[in-house]
Amino acid sequence: MGHKKKTAGTVILQREIAPQIFDMWIETDLAREAGAGQFAALYPKGESMLLPRPISVCETDRQAGRLRIVYRVQGKGTREFSAYAKGDTVFLSGILGNGFPLMEAEGKRALLAGGGIGIPPLLELAKELRGEKTIVAGYRDKNLFLKEDMEKYAPFYAATEDGSAGTKGNVLDAVRERGIAPEVIYACGPMPMLRAVKEYAAQAKIKAYLSLEERMACGIGACLGCVCKTTKKDGHSHVKNARICTEGPVFEAGEVDI
Amino acid sequence: MKTEVTIAGVRLKNPVMTASGTFGSGIEYSEFVDLNRLGAVVTKGVALEPWPGNPTPRVAEVYGGMLNAIGLQNPGISVFLERDLPFLEAYDTKIIVNVCGKTIEEYLAVVERLGDSSADLLEINVSCPNVKEGAIAFGQNADCLYEITSRIKKKAKQPIIMKLSPNVTDITEMARAAEAAGADALSLINTLTGMKIDIHKRAFALANKTGGLSGPAIKPVAVRMVYQCANAVTIPIIGMGGIADGEDAVEFLMAGATAVSVGAMNFHDPYTTLKVIEGIEAYMERYGVNDIHELIGCVR
After folding, report:
1. What residue ranges of chain A are covered by domains with CATH 3.40.50.80?
2. Is residue A225 less than 8 Å (CB to CB) from chain B?
3. Is A52 in the B-facing interface, judged by CB distances under 8 Å?
4. Contacts of B65 in chain A (CB under 8 A)
5. Partner of B105 at 20 to 30 A CA spacing, among A46, A160, B41, B299?
């Protein structure tokens, strides 16, 4: 038996930090092993719900054993989580996934690019990544959740779809407007954004590490539900379909066919 | 208290195994579960060559269950023999290898490759609803099922378990055909074909449009079919469909199953198999059952 486990954590704090975006600190020893870009699977208590919800690590306090997640209420499961209050039990398994490769940024100017609910994992990444780094986050509107937290670790620029804050447009519009010239990119966000980042990185001839998302069932690599197409044979099934929960969720952009 | 059961001459320390496709080859779940405690591990379906499976999304949650249309992604028999089987050999549990194919010849070739392997039993998947050719086509017509069963039985060195589809008018007809063709045991049920539409996107929840429904939502259907088949054939039945705890497992045993498989509920709780084993023992303790055979088919 290995290091993954399903465990009961305790909610320390929960608040809504933007419409439908919730910020929860959980006391759990999973926090001690959690790194940037990894995720936990949270199990709803409602008996009609079978599957855990994969939610990425926003921040971890390894010494105190506290894990922070920031998630959007998307359906029944996340709605249940959003109702948890201080002292409530939360069932979760982890820590899952490979996480962002921190070494790849050594001696390079790094861009941390996030879109929407893909922004939270950039906080722990910004904390852990050494060297020169810039965060560019794309939001719908001026509800710039996690802005103050991230500004502590790196220069932060926002883009908004409606132009109500920062650059009007998307993450790459802000990158161009600010004249940011990264040598490596770490990105998490919706698929159109990740495709654009992949193309940008290919043109700039730099590496980009993309955190992907897919509907999951087991979360641990057994069910083969959450695969993505890869350019080379994957290590598990040898069919160019890698498991996002296990080989990922972070892939080098050139490795995946998105 | 005796929990040992026998399937086609293979003795299992307890009747609890894993449903094919929900437990990989045990590698991933071994981080959570001591595989030595399981009666058997039933592996994910393996074909002759690697299969890429279906496009994503492949899974969707529904009330009390889930839909899947993985499409039998698997690395093929060679990798399976080199990597997955040796992993399982290290454990004190029985190994049941699930076999899939698109043609009878493919099934036969896989069965032949497994002939000298450490597999204790072979489970033949003729009931996957998510691949277009083969698979379920063999499981929805009694004549086809008879033919594939008898041809595999002639080739197989291990006893064979035919895994039946519930997506038929009369499952006892299939059970009888498999038994008549020489099947040593039956597994049932595979998933029920279902569909989910995402009304916000006006699109199917699964890329494959349809998928197999599993989980507690299907348990009453599965119990009914196990009961019907147990009364139609004399070969042992491995019952499955939404088993979440020991009480669910006992229900299947009482309906006539000799063993049970835990499937979708592994996703809900990776420790479900252990919970089921402990729950069966607790039930036996509570009701003073000395031998699990007292429960098998006791409700008639």
Report:
1. 102-211
2. yes
3. yes
4. 50
5. B41
Residue A226 forms contact with B (CB below 8 Å)? yes
pLDDT at residue B127, rounded to an integer: 79
User: Residues of chain B with pLDDT > 90: what percent?
Assistant: 95
Interface contact flag, A214 B57, Cβ < 8 Å = yes
For residue A76, CA distances in Å to A4, A72, A87, B258 come to 26, 12, 21, 37
Could you give the 3-state DSSP secondary structure of residue B227?
helix
Report pLDDT for A1. 40
Q: Do A237 and B50 touch (CB under 8 A)?
A: yes
User: Is the per-residue pLDDT at A2 higher than 60?
Assistant: no
The rounded Cα B56 to chain-centroid distance in angstroms is 23
The whole-angstrom separation of Cα B163 and Cα B156 is 16
Min distance B149 CA to chain A CA atoms (Å) = 27
CB B71 within 8 Å of CB B57? no
Closest CA to A196 of A126, A121, A118: A118
For chain B, give every domain's residue range: 5-48+74-197+213-294
CATH architecture of A102-211: 3-Layer(aba) Sandwich (3.40)
Residue B128 annotated among the catalytic residues of the structure? yes
pLDDT band at B130 (very low <50, low <70, confident <90, very high): low
A40 in contact with chain B, both atoms CB, cutoff 8 A: no
Q: Where in chain A is the domain with CATH 2.40.30.10?
A: 5-96
Supply the pTM of this predicted model: 0.95
Task: Convert the pLDDT of each residue in B139-193 to its tens digit.
Answer: 889 999 999 999 999 999 999 999 999 999 999 999 999 999 999 999 999 999 9
- Taking residues B7-29, report their average pLDDT: 98
Class of domain A5-96: mainly beta
CATH architecture of B5-48+74-197+213-294: Alpha-Beta Barrel (3.20)
